[in-house]
Specification:
Number of strands: 11
CATH architecture: Alpha-Beta Barrel
Number of helices: 10
CATH superfamily: NADP-dependent oxidoreductase domain
Number of domains: 1
Distance between the termini: 33 Å
CATH topology: TIM Barrel
Shape: globular
Length: 321
């Protein structure tokens, strides 16, 4: 697989990683199979997709434990990223609140290290910035974890450019993770190319989550197919009328895919890669076939014609949450 830099760390990672969240919750939970997921994670490492993404929130810690089991014995091959800052209040109802306090950070990092079975976390993100706690206080406390050898590098999830700048002035931001896809382009908008442009300017990695539009951009989903526990049942873009309206986005993606003799999923991932050399998407799957398809997108090159057609796509109908 083609390699890209992880921020300014000097570390090279596969240009497409693996988001592990759906192995534990929110997506088709009845299909959860830990042993199969462990095999998929190991296959990702075999194929060079070594940026593995999780969070303490996912499945109330289950996802970290799962990832820890998967990378045991292959620690040197994996770049493990996890997050703190959202506290789960009720697993069944998925009720949660933000907490970026120093006290919670200290307890959260120890719990993540234990679940992951690691001595040090490679990349540690603030999952969502807590308006009740000054960012400088949170980021400074996270920098202490680097000094103590508990964490190697720091990242932010879904910050504004102003927040990223503030944090970077205190301690280097190695990565920013935000949603970016052919139906969610907010991270490209604003002065100097938005968050993606800011990452390019300082040498940080930009890590798009949901590059496949939570599966919609693959062209394989239809209204009414989601079980009750699948969070897409309540997502505005997955209401029947919105899915029907957004089909026009998929139609163009499929046209480009046919021209390139690849799949719509591969076009969607390749488009994120085309947004800059600092971009490393993390599509999620618990299926070996889709994993191979996703990682192979690293070798898909879109032409100027392809990119122009994709740039002209209409805005998505429905908010992303």
């Amino acid at each position: 697989m083609r390699l890209r830099n992880l921020g300014n760390t000097g570390i090279k990672i596969g240009s497409v990683g693996l988001g592990c969240m759906g192995m534990s919750w929110l997506y088709q939970e009845s299909a959860r199979d830990d042993e199969r997921s462990i095999r998929v994670i190991n296959e990702a490492l075999d194929l060079g997709g070594n940026l593995l993404d999780t969070a303490d929130l996912y499945g109330a810690g289950h996802n970290e434990t799962l990832l820890g089991r998967a990378v045991a014995g292959r620690r040197d091959e994996a770049v493990v990223a996890t997050k703190f800052g959202i506290v789960l209040d009720d697993l069944e109802q998925r009720a949660a609140h933000r907490d970026n306090s120093r006290a919670y950070l200290r307890s959260a990092v120890e719990a993540s290290l234990r679940r992951l079975g690691l001595d040090v976390i490679d990349l540690y993100y603030v999952h969502r910035i807590d308006p009740a706690v000054p960012l400088a206080e949170t980021w400074g406390a996270m920098a202490e974890l680097v000094d103590e050898g508990k964490v190697r590098w720091l990242g932010l999830s879904e910050p504004t450019v102003a927040q990223a700048r503030e944090a970077h002035a205190i301690h280097p931001v190695t990565a920013v993770q935000s949603e970016l896809s052919l139906w969610t382009r907010d991270a490209l908008e604003g002065e100097s190319g938005g968050t993606v442009g800011w990452c390019e300017s300082v040498g940080a990695s930009f890590v798009p989550f949901a590059p496949l539009g939570r599966g919609f951009l693959t062209g394989t989903l239809h209204a009414g197919q989601f079980e009750d526990t699948d969070f897409r049942t309540a997502n505005p873009r997955f209401h029947r009328a919105a899915m029907e309206a957004n089909q026009r986005i998929v139609d163009v993606i499929r046209e480009v895919a046919d021209r390139r003799s690849v799949t719509p999923a591969q076009v969607a991932i390749a488009w994120t890669l085309a947004q800059g050399e600092r971009v490393v998407p993390i599509p999620g799957t618990k299926n070996s076939r889709y994993l191979r398809e996703n990682l192979a997108a690293a070798e898909v090159y879109l032409t100027e014609e392809d990119l122009a057609d994709l740039a002209a796509l209409p805005a998505a109908v429905g908010s992303r949450y």
